[in-house]
Structures are given as C-alpha cells and as structure tokens.
Amino acid sequence: MMNRLLLLSAMVLCASGCGIKRVPLDVLDKLPYEAKIELLEAENDLALAVDRLDEAHAEVARARDQIRRGRDRYSAARSEVSEAADAQSREVAELAVIEADKRVEWLRAKQQVNLREEELAEKNFTCAEARYEVARLAAARKAKLEGSEELDPARFDDQLKDCEADYAELKEKTKETSAEAETMRQDWDQARSALAKKTFDARASPFVE
User: Fold this and answer.
1) CB of 126 within 8 A of CB of 161?
2) Domain 32-198 belongs to what topology?
3) Which of 143, 125, 168 is nearest to 20 (CA)?
4) Who contacts 27 (Cβ-Cβ below 8 Å, separation ≥6)?
C-alpha cells in the first residue's frame, strides 16, 4: 500500500511541478512496523486525494466531449432552420437553435467549474502529501531515528498551513465560478422549456433527453 502511494505521489508531483518538502527516505529506512501502522490514516487520506484527482481529470474529459456534441447539435439546428418547409417548422427550428446555443454556453460554463474542481483536486492532493510528510516526520522523531532530529517540524507544519490556505482560497473561487455556471444553466432551462412546450415535450424535454 505504501509503495503504491509513493509511486502515485511521485507521478502526480512530476506532472504538476509541485515541490513538497519531504522526509528523506534514508531517515525512514528503519521506521519500525508499529510506526508504519500509525501512518495508515495519512496514507488513506492520500489515496482518497488520488481518487478525487482522477475523477476531476475524467470529468474534464467528459465535459469536453459534451461540448463537442453540443456544437454538433447547434449546427444541426441551424441547418433545420434553412430546411424548414413552413412557418411552424421554422419557428420550432429557431427555438431549437436558441436551445442548442444556450446548451453550449452552459456546457462551457460548466467546464470552467470542472477546471476549477480539477485545480482544487490538485491542491487537495498536495495538501494530503503535506499532511503525510508531517505524519512521517512525527513518526520518525517519535522513534528517534537517526537524522530526524535535524529536520525542523515547523517547516513541515508551515508548508501544510500554506497549502490549506491556498486550498481555501481556491474553494472560494470555485464557488464563484459555480454561481456563474448556474446562471447559464437557468438560461438553458428556459430555452429548453420553450422548445419543449412548443413541441408538446417532443423535443428538449427532460423526459426525452
């Protein structure tokens, strides 16, 4: 478990370019089994952070595909306007264009939220690593391992506090972005409702989406 977490940690750190002060491995080489058991909570926290980061990456990819499909839908709706055979068909087609346009606007706004969430997940992972290093140093000093006395716990605590402060700031920015996306979603809902009403729920109804 510990080896897997260390591997995942190294991979994400290389990708993000984040520099976390670490307890040297040569200090931890003689960490007793009992001390390793005490690290399980911090390791689990780190594993959960990895899972959250993976899901954030996946959501960004899914939204990118949704935007592509939304643009295709918009293009199809525009073509429908020019091909309308009568006034009623044209009116429906024009409503479909508006609905498709609002859909894409919302999906793009939602993607901004996803990108914020991805950034938040990356910072959460960094903070989980910082907590892990605090726990490892505490375990090493408790076991009085050679070299641990030379490491200043305050530096490890400070990097965790700085990370948590950055996380809190990012979280507030994510809330702001989410509020903007919600406005876009409401605009799309109105356009979708107008189209559904005109077509007796045959189009753009949540029951047929």
Assistant:
1) no
2) Substrate Binding Domain Of Dnak; Chain:A; Domain 2 (1.20.1270)
3) 125
4) 140, 145, 146, 147, 148, 151
Whole-number Cα distances in Å, 57 to 8, 54, 60, 104, 111:
15, 5, 5, 20, 11
CB atoms within 10 A of CB 104: 20
Residue-level pLDDT, tens digit, the chain, 209 residues:
444 455 455 544 444 445 789 999 998 888 998 888 989 999 999 999 999 999 999 999 999 999 999 999 999 999 999 999 999 999 999 999 999 999 999 999 999 999 999 999 999 999 999 999 999 999 999 999 999 999 999 999 999 999 999 999 999 999 999 999 999 999 999 999 999 998 877 676 544 34
| Structural domain boundaries in the chain | 32-198
Alpha-carbon distance of 159 to 89, in angstroms, equals 63
Question: Between the CA atoms of 153, 157, 158 and 161, what dihedral angle is there, to the nearest 10 degrees?
Answer: 180
Using alpha carbons, select from 135, 127, 134, 177 the residue that is nearest to residue 155: 134
Residue located via tokens 């429908």: 80
Is the pTM value of this prediction over 0.85? no
Amino acid in position 2: M
Q: Let me know if 192 is exposed, middle or buried by CB neighbors in 10 A (0-12, 13-18, 19+).
A: buried
